[in-house]
Amino acid sequence: MTPVTPLTRPARLVPGARVAVVAPSGPVVEERLSAGLDLLRGWDLDPVVAPHTLDRHPEFPYLAGTDADRAADFQNAWCDPSVSAVLCARGGYGVQRMVDLLDWDAIRAAGPKTLVGFSDITALHEAFATRAGLVTLHGPMAAGVDFLKNGRAQEHLRATLFSPETVRTIRAAEGSTALVPGRARGVLLGGCLCLLAAELGNPHARPSARGALLCLEDVGEETYRLDRYLTQLLRAGWLDGVAGIALGSWAECEPYEKVRALLVDRLGGLGVPMVEEFGFGHEEGALTIPFGVTAELDAEAGTLTLDEPALR
Fold it and tell me: Catalytic one among 25, 84, 119, 249?
């Protein structure tokens, strides 16, 4: 299979830029959204909220409105020429139900913009990589608790959006260690492990992580389920030729000693540099990681050094 290649970088944000906040997955808490909007205004941004962001699906309350409404909100936000970035309000579940309703010809025609989100937004990261060829940001969401309450998460996202040259080297959180030492180069991709496994075989998912630096994390999963996801990726050949692995948080999973043993068991045999507890995902102070940019991983130093800034 062809190795993963670098993607097109959108432009950085400037003061006064308009950003759209959308809810492509789960329902949003109004108070958190309001607080997130205030933070964005404090960054001298002009946030606009998509019409159905606070909706709930009439039958399935784990969804923020109907699939058609969530897709329309996203589509309209992205294709609005006054909007410079689309920020997801939260994750949860639901992107896979709406992503194929998007008009990808129109999205490509709208030009490069910045997408920010993580967790369930992993499915959108994959879709934008394969269907639009764009760098996206795996980072805090506008109505997320971490974004609202953690200065480290706020400042790393802000620096990435406004002055990306200042975060060319992303340093792991304190306590990060190399499970497999060494250095590796490749294009960054990844996200939530369960979503990557669920994406296998879908038309908007990459067929392989060959040549990539893979970033993995997850939340609220028992160890046997993590085992199943990793084993599925291994059996499908999706991990063949991966260059290196950065592991993020495993919040609300079983005790980390169990999770670490599984990660070493399933991934150690790949023989590539691998670092744990890097500091992205479902944890306090989560770092923003640009997917689609070429970088070098130094597992022992706990650094990701980008060849170019995440945004132009």
Answer: 119
User: In the annotation, is 282 catalytic?
Assistant: yes
Tell me how far apart the 2 most distant CA atoms of the chain are, in Å: 51
Specify whether the CB–CB gap between 130 and 204 falls below 8 A.
yes
Question: Which of the residues 25, 138, 176, 217 is marked catalytic?
Answer: 217
The pTM (predicted TM-score) of the whole model is 0.97
Does 34 qualify as catalytic in the annotation? no
> Which tokens in the block code for residue 117?
């989100």
Residue 13 confidence (pLDDT): 98
31 catalytically annotated: no
Q: Are 37 and 144 in contact (CB under 8 A)?
A: no
What are the DSSP E strand ranges found in 164-293? 169-171, 177-180, 183-192, 212-219, 244-251, 274-276, 289-291
> What's CA 215's distance to the chain center, in Å?
9
| 61: its two tokens | 């309350």
